[in-house]
Amino acid sequence: MHAFDVLGDPVRRRILELLAEGERTSGAVTAAIREEFAISQPAVSQHLRVLRESGFTTVRAEGARRLYTIDAAPLREVDVWLERFRGFWEQRLDALGTELARGKRARRLHDGTQGGGNRSAKDRTAGRAKEETPGG
Amino acid sequence: MHAFDVLGDPVRRRILELLAEGERTSGAVTAAIREEFAISQPAVSQHLRVLRESGFTTVRAEGARRLYTIDAAPLREVDVWLERFRGFWEQRLDALGTELARGKRARRLHDGTQGGGNRSAKDRTAGRAKEETPGG
DNA sequence: GCTTTGAATAAGACTTGCCTTATATAAGGA
DNA sequence: TCCTTATATAAGGCAAGTCTTATTCAAAGC
């Protein structure tokens, strides 16, 4: 199962959010999930299995308990895939770094700087921009 | 359809990669995809529809042609969701920025600095670290 | 006007994923 | 030992997604 398929399920996304806060037992995860989604314990267990088998989590036993920990490797893959699109909403993050994209776009509307996507169809009539690749 | 569901399909991911390079006609996308996946024209068209209806692309007509352009908004949502996990593989990106996580992890193994995930089960016996949240 | 090209839609088969109930397995405690 | 708790697995039903072929619709070109 591909990382994106795994993340396609809202229950699994929620589980990962929980695990992002720290290691949790299967029981704790199940309890939290069941409050939000009203599904059975086996259903949660099956989601945990998917996460396990696709590498999003690792498990260790402590008595009868199973302690789930996040393993970020697949999430990182997703992040890597996303990288090629980031230029569409982020101006290149140079030395300084973290200016809000929202602010940047607003500024672009004044000075006309090309920063990536979100150009409306109309804009094309105004220039010879045929290709639209990010991070130019 | 949720953004992650849309990205769950490899054909759609490929289409987005193509569109990331610039606007493409439906025909151009179809040709490229059919070389890689061996599916029919309607199949590609249906994927384009999904991308359209879920906001990943916008279309404009030029004669009989349909020109597809990427709309990064949903990708950005995905990126935002991923943000909470980024601390697991990135040391906080301060002023300087882009040190490879690989290098950082290696260093951590020496000085014991807490930087996020990927701590092995054994490590737990060495300290009172009960919670494991990124970006601490 | 007719035919061809570009692209979308329709209908139906097939597959896959998710959930449920029932059950298994193993640890903990009386 | 027996019962309970913690968790996982099994089997089957149902829903949703993706593919295919057939068809529609609109623009282009002769």
What would a concise description of this structure say?
With 136 residues, the first copy, chain A, is mainly alpha-helical.
Helix content of chain A: 40-55%
CATH superfamily of the largest domain in chain A, please? Winged helix-like DNA-binding domain superfamily/Winged helix DNA-binding domain
Oligomer: homodimer
Radius of gyration of chain A: 21 Å
List the domain count of chain A as a whole number: 2
Note poorly predicted spans of chain A: 94-131
Shape of chain A: elongated
**DSSP helix count of chain A?**
6
Question: Mean pLDDT of chain A, rounded to whole units?
Answer: 78
Reading the helices and strands of chain A in chain order gives: HHEHHEEHH
Strand-pairing-aware structural class of chain A: mainly alpha
Determine the CATH topology of the largest domain in chain A: Arc Repressor Mutant, subunit A
CATH class category label of the largest domain in chain A: Mainly Alpha
CATH architecture of the largest domain in chain A: Orthogonal Bundle
Compute the number of strand runs of chain A. Answer: 3
Taking the alpha carbons of the first and last residues of chain A, their distance comes to 34 Å
Write the layout of secondary structure elements.
2 copies of one chain form a homodimer.
Chain A: H1 3-7, H2 10-20, E1 24-25, H3 26-37, H4 41-53, E2 57-62, E3 65-70, H5 73-86, H6 101-111
Antiparallel strand pairs in A: 1-3, 2-3
The structure holds a DNA duplex (30 and 30 nucleotides).
Describe this structure in words.
Two copies of one chain form a homodimer. Chain A folds into two domains: 3-75, Winged helix-like DNA-binding domain superfamily/Winged helix DNA-binding domain (Arc Repressor Mutant, subunit A), CATH 1.10.10; 87-126, no CATH class. A three-stranded antiparallel sheet of chain A has the order 1-3-2. The first copy, chain A, is 49% helix and 10% strand. Chain A is mainly alpha-helical. At the A-B interface, α1, α2 and α5 of A face α1, α2 and α5 of B.
